Amino acid sequence: MEKESVKTKTSYFPKPYAVKGGRSMPKKKKRLFRKSSFREAVTGYFFLLPALILLGVFLLYPMASAFYYSFTDFYILTPDEKSFIGLENFTFIFQDAEFRQAFWNTVYFTIIVVPVQLAVALGLALLINQKLKFRIFFRTAFFSPVVMSLVVVSILWTFMYNPNEGLINEFLGMVGIPSQPFLTSPDQAMNSIIVMSVWQGAGFQMMIFLAGLQNIPNHLYEAADIDGANRWHKFWNITLPGLRNVALFIFITITIAAFKLLVQPMIMTQGGPLGSTKSLVYHIYETGFNYRDVGYASAMAVIFTVIVLIITIVQRILIREERG
Amino acid sequence: MKKKRLIHRVTMYVILTFLSFLFLFPLIWMLFSSLKDEFQIFRDMSSLKAFLPPRPSEVEGGYFQNYIAAFQRVDLFDYIINSLIYTIGIIVFGLIVNSMAGYALARFRFPFAGFWLGVIIATLIIPPESIFLPLYVLVYDLGWVNTYTGLIVPFIANAFAIFLFRQFFLDFPRELEEAAKMDGCSQLGIFFRIIVPLSKPVFATVAIVLFINHWNDFLWPLVVASDESIRTIQIGLQYFMNEPPIQWGQVMAALTVATIPMLIIFIFLQRYYVQGLTHTGTKN
Question: Which fold has domain A102-323?
Answer without folding.
Answer: MetI-like fold (1.10.3720)
